[in-house]
Design goal:
By secondary structure, the protein is α/β, with parallel strands linked by helices. Helices cover 25% and strands 26% of the residues. The longest helix is centred in the middle third of the chain and has 13 residues. The chain starts with a strand and ends with a strand.
């Protein structure tokens, strides 16, 4: 089968012919419907070096954001019908610690002993024609379009988890939320905030086309650049936003998010670009929560799928056939992707 393989650090991936996987005990084989190309993939093959924090040793098939149809069941697996559509929960923990018992494999207590972080993160992923995955990691899609849903397993789940943890700061009237960075995650964050809260949503980005999409979704937009924080605070009547979400994570966006947050507000850094923030007692808003999150739980992915089925969220995506998968990654590197790029191997 054809697959997009990460062969070495700081080396662009390749499309290669590899063996079709065989599901083991407790696993299923999926015929891949859609595989989302994520900036995390770009970090894996472009930014990281051996031994760096977050680096995942090669070689393996990329793709941690996947959907597909049941093709084959491994030994001991029951309750699945061939051809049914599922979304894949990407993280894979040890399955025996407290975090994994909560379905929060992202915070597995034995992660250091695991040979991989998840599907497409050390273990072969779904940027291929077929994908082998634990049956426990499947979330049923029913009649929902699996190609449209593919991006939800990261670009939907990650902002959902961050927003859900921030809901106490957004309960009640007169609340404001800020979304920094309007890529695949940020645009879904706008929709999730609209679905879960009554807050006024402020969205900011350097790209006019991204802000135009956010406006269509009901956000008030502020362009990046000089005076950005002042304009955001002006919208809030000077107090700042009650919850800020930075989906980029470089130093300037972290500063924007923190500078826009109200006293006793919450600022969540979701983007993993590695930016730092110089905290000071006299410059940070009093009692502000500055935190980070990583992905989410499998239970929350069920909730994301519920929102999708109800028509409350809809990923913005562009499809690419397998033979153009590397073009999708190059467009991602060049900043030319609006929303998400989804590779459809069987188009």
């Amino acid at each position: 089968m054809r697959a997009v393989v990460f062969e070495n650090y700081q080396t662009f991936p390749e499309i290669k012919e590899v063996d079709k996987p065989v599901p083991g005990p407790g696993e299923v084989l999926l015929k891949v419907a859609g595989a989302g190309a994520c900036h995390s993939d770009v970090a894996i093959f472009q930014d990281f070096v051996d031994g760096a924090p977050g680096a995942v040793p090669p070689a393996f098939i990329l793709g941690h954001e996947n959907s597909g149809w049941i093709e084959e069941l491994g030994p001991g697996v029951e309750g699945f019908a061939r051809g049914d559509a599922y979304l894949v929960y990407g993280p894979i923990g040890c399955q025996r610690c407290r975090a994994c018992s909560r379905g929060q494999d992202t915070y597995c207590e034995n992660a250091a002993t695991m040979p991989y972080m998840g599907v497409g993160l050390g273990r072969d992923g779904g940027m291929a024609e077929y994908l082998r995955v634990p049956a426990r990691n499947l979330v049923a899609l029913g009649d929902a379009d699996p190609v449209a849903a593919a991006a939800l397993s990261d670009a939907g789940l990650t902002p959902y988890h961050a927003i859900k943890l921030s809901l106490p700061h957004l309960n009640g009237g007169g609340k404001y939320a800020l979304v920094v960075g309007l890529g695949g995650l940020g645009l879904l964050a706008v929709q999730i905030l609209k679905a879960l809260t009554g807050a006024t949503i402020i969205a900011t980005d350097m790209k006019p086309e991204a802000m135009a999409e956010a406006e269509k979704l009901g956000a008030v937009t502020v362009s990046g650049g000089e005076g950005q924080v002042e304009r955001i605070r002006e919208i809030t009547g000077g107090k700042g936003v009650d919850a800020a979400f930075d989906f980029v994570g470089v130093a300037p966006t972290v500063m924007t998010a923190m500078g826009s947050t109200a006293r006793q507000g919450r600022c969540t850094i979701v983007g993993i670009a590695g930016g730092s923030y110089d905290w000071s007692f006299f410059t940070a808003p009093y009692e502000v929560e500055l935190t980070s999150t990583y992905w989410g739980t499998i239970e929350e992915l069920y909730e994301v799928v519920d929102l999708f089925k109800a028509g409350q969220i809809q990923p913005l995506y562009t499809t690419y056939p397998m033979e153009r998968a590397l073009e999708a990654y190059q467009a991602l590197v060049d900043g030319k992707i609006a929303g998400r790029a989804v590779v459809v191997p069987h188009s």
